[in-house]
# Entry
Amino acid sequence: MTRTSRRLLRRLATLGSDPQPISPRTAAMRPRTEGAELTLSVCPYCAVGCSQRVYHRGGEILSIEGNPESPISAGHLCPKGAATYQLHVNPHRITSVLYRAPYSDRWEQRPLGWAMERVAQLIRTTRDRGFVERTESGERVNHCLTIASLGGATLDNEENYLIKKLLTGGLGIIPIENQARI
# Structure
């Protein structure tokens, strides 16, 4: 028997006999999610709809993991879903948009909030300009044919249903299509 194998056998013989196998430093450690608020969410990537647990404190996301209580995925996430945390905390994440004003020859950087407000204003203006309450014969139609919508394939049935209700019932938009069907 070699000296290395004797050392290994001695170590194996004492394995588990230490009453304090955890160091004081390790015992003092706490999970970063301890005391954090838990919010259930849905993975943003595909239409499967895997449930996720989002741990956050004071407006800061601490961790995102699969939800073991999910009947869809039982807590398992694909590589994209497992990287959702990086989607939110990545220092290289784009938080502004490029905007080119009408007739301008250059792009300007604008905050995302400004872009969302601008899109809302343009939708409202276009809808008000193209909204038809009644046809010439007096039939009530309440529709807008000057705006169309093309949805994405990453939405699940429930999200598509709510978007359809908003666009048709709320805004009167008729031309609605989804990329998953094309």
